[in-house]
């Protein structure tokens, strides 16, 4: 399975010696960073990336119209000093609304003195494209912020510094917003709030950090959240995951290397807690949790599925999904990416594969 030839097999002729990587996500278009990573000839091993869509996203049109109206009425710059994004889907809904319903003239004017914050390179690139075409005066930060914690820390420094350097401008904007509801986030705080566009299920680390009572009053940043999309599990996911897994793993009594392990492992990359119940059920790896502490349960596996679990490795894109598997199902992933990116996930997988190869030597 080492990529001796440094070339990947054509997509219509799967390499029987390649390592299947089941990516539980919808393939991004026109390019997907995970596909590019695993098919790159720079990889040590030959991989076969397989996308299995899990989530079905539906935009909250009513709430998106509320955001749209802030732009159309000119109220955005009186009420908010910036927008925060932590998901690609939120950026997509916002971008569609700006392009199709607001237009260049109004959005360009609204972008004056507007800060845009995003978590990581993927959402940064998407938002930067929109900034170039429709929000030319906005500042954009967060390209290297791989987690909500990192982004919250960046916002505290960046937004507070910007406001300290623009006191006259801020006083004028706050004077115009004086009669508006929720204009300052509390007594002694002279900053406009931030508007956080989120999905129905999301972490609250950013608003908690920015509005923490432990911060000095003049450093706190008020955050208003608006749900712009809702997420559910696709009806087709369970059956598609089951059939794909059976195809790449074959029968449980298949050939092995003589040491009880298969000739090729299978990786499952999990991007969200949503859909984990179906994945865990099909893999048959939920721990027998009754009477066990969380730490003990994370080490337990159902006996009848020991072999399948050994041959099927699990990688999570970050700590939220890792902790969900640990605490709800007693499942310990094999790796958790340090950064939620193709390099972060792929690099962790390559390290495990290298260690596995050394053990067999």
From TrEMBL:
Its EC number is 4.2.1.75. It comes from Emydomyces testavorans. GO terms for molecular function: uroporphyrinogen-III synthase activity. This is Uroporphyrinogen-III synthase. GO terms for cellular component: cytosol. It comes from the Eukaryota. One of its GO terms (biological process) is uroporphyrinogen III biosynthetic process. Residues 1-20 are annotated as: Disordered. The keyword ATP-binding does not apply. Gene3D superfamilies: 3.40.50.10090. It is an enzyme of class 4 (lyase). The gene is HEM4. InterPro entries: 4pyrrol_syn_uPrphyn_synt_sf (IPR036108), 4pyrrol_synth_uPrphyn_synth (IPR003754), UROS/Hem4 (IPR039793). Keywords: Lyase. Pfam families: HEM4 (PF02602). Residues 1-18 have a biased composition (Low complexity). The keyword Protease does not apply. Residues 43-161, 191-344 form the Tetrapyrrole biosynthesis uroporphyrinogen III synthase domain.
